[in-house]
Amino acid sequence: MNLASLLSKDRIILSLKPGKKNKVIEDLVYTIKQGADAELIVSTLLKREELGSTGIGKAIAIPHCRSLAVDKLEIAVGRTTKPIKFNAIDKKPVSLIFLIIAPPQDPGNQYLITLGKIVQIAKELIKKKLIGKAQTPEEFITLIDQVEKGLKKGK
Amino acid sequence: MSTEIVEMHLKLLFDLDNLLNDMDEPAYKKIGFKVEEKEKQSLIKTRTDLLKKLPRATADIYERLKKRYQRAIAPVDNGFCFGCFQRLPIQLLARSEEIITCPNCGRILYWRKK
Ligand SMILES: [Zn+2]
User: Fold this and answer.
1) Which candidate in A21, A33, A58, A64 is catalytic?
2) Candidate CATH numbers 1.10.1410.10, 3.40.50.150, 3.90.1150.10, 1.10.287.1490; the one for domain B3-111
3) CB A57 within 8 A of CB B62
4) pLDDT band of B30, cuts 50, 70, 90
5) B114 pLDDT tier (thresholds 50, 70, 90)
6) Which regions in chain A score pLDDT beneath 50?
7) What distance in angstroms lies between residue B80's CA and the mean position of ligand 1's atoms?
């Protein structure tokens, strides 16, 4: 399964309003679920952040969790118009966020495989200085697709 | 305690237990996210506190199922229990207890809102 095929235009916000970490996570979750489901997901994601920030450094964060509130793997992407504090491992602010939610039961462990793939692609975006490149959600999906194909070729 | 509050606590408890499980998965550790041991202990305390908020009988069922299956709650999908993949009897829906368990595997059932 390639990552680009798991992305959807209406869950990619490239002009996300900067704000507190919790608020930004909440805004992204609401592109996936609303109401009590969204509240549950936000609570679980924030508990995950308490264990250690998912800010992997160089302006990218990848909040993630499993939740009973979803029945399939869901991904949202946000790029803030200004970098925000995320308590990242390099102490630097974050501007690109990949948010991933997986159902509890997950045949084939698609969750951990996809999570690993996002980390790999994120590092490639950093290395090639591509974080700010895409201007529209469509361009972003194409970019991810190209980066992913590039990684496969490199192997 | 209202059914809604019990359900809310149970769902969070279940999510947190899945979170704690994943932290110990070798495949997860390999990805390389930072996890503080001290914070993990504090999360274990949070889940214990949450368990105490549940009615005693519900908490006992949950813990027993967790020991047996690791995941104590099974979502219902298309009339099937997603724990044992058996079709559930239609009468089950009409019941109004705090928690409904699968007549086949015993897991706590959860109907997702569509
Ligand atoms: Zn069952």
Assistant:
1) A64
2) 1.10.287.1490
3) no
4) very high
5) low
6) none
7) 8
Is the Cβ–Cβ distance between A22 and A45 less than 8 Å? no
Q: How many CB contacts within 8 angstroms connect chain A with chain B?
A: 87
- In order of their start, the domains of chain A are 3-154 (3.40.930.10)
List the domain boundaries for chain B.
3-111
Would you call B110 an interface residue with chain A, using a CB distance cutoff of 8 Å? yes
Q: Is B84 touching A (CB cutoff 8 A)?
A: no
**Predicted TM-score (pTM) above 0.90:** yes
Residue A103 with chain B: CB contacts under 8 Å: 75
* Intra-chain end-to-end CA distance of chain A, in Å: 17
Predicted pLDDT at B96:
67
Cα→Cα distances A72→A102, A117, A153, Å: 6, 17, 29
Cβ(A47)–Cβ(B19) below 8 Å:
yes
Per CB distance under 8 Å, which residues of A are interface residues toward B?
A: 35-37, 40, 43-44, 47-48, 50-54, 56, 62, 65-69, 71, 89, 103-105, 109, 112, 115-116, 119
